[in-house]
Amino acid sequence: MKPDGPLVTKRLYFSLTGGGAVRRTDFNTRVWKLALVQAGVIPEPKEGERHQAAREHGMHALRHFYASVLLDAGENIKALSSYLGHGDPGFTLRVYTHLMPSSDGRARRAVDGLYEGPGSTSDGPGTAQAE
User: Fold this and answer.
1) CB of 108 within 8 A of CB of 126?
2) Who's near 63: CB < 8 A, 6+ residues apart?
3) Fewer CB under 10 Å: which end of the chain, C or N?
4) Nearest to residue 17, comparing CAs of 6, 26, 9, 28?
5) Do the Cβ atoms of 55 and 61 come closer than 8 Å?
6) How many CA atoms are closer than 13 Å to the CA of 18, on its beta-carbon side?
């Protein structure tokens, strides 16, 4: 809990077959990258070579995806900042806000909804596209 505090032992959710912690780099190389190859996202490395080193293909991409999905779903930035372990919600906004494809549509619906009365139909871009 504290650098000078008492030692605390916790059971690991995931461990190696022989015991011990699963390191992020091992998981990234032995599991994650293999899954990306099988999904056709990255090419299989040549014999004796390593997988491509690209941040967008690493485990960190899942963190960005998680943050973007929660923001797109309307999660509070302060809560998301806490989930990600950030002390400053402004940092979370600067680093993890990626526009999702549904963001434009959600913004249009919000503005359309402001001007719609009970039982009225939208005259916005979605109406013209539906015809």
Assistant:
1) yes
2) 84, 96
3) C
4) 26
5) yes
6) 0
Cα→Cα distances 15→11, 20, 22, Å: 9, 5, 5
Under a CB-based contact definition with an 8 Å cutoff, are residues 84 and 63 in contact? yes
15 pairs with which residues across the strands? 21
Amino acid sitting at position 49: E
Per-residue pLDDT tens over the stretch 18-68:
877 888 777 887 788 888 889 888 888 889 888 877 767 777 778 888 888
Residue with tokens 């013209």: 128
Q: What percent of the residues of the chain are helix, what percent strand, and what percent coil, each to the nearest 5?
A: 50, 0, 50
> Crossing angle of helices 60-72/89-96, nearest 10°?
100
pLDDT at 82: 93
- CA 56 → CA 18, 62, 98, 116, distances in Å? 31, 9, 13, 41
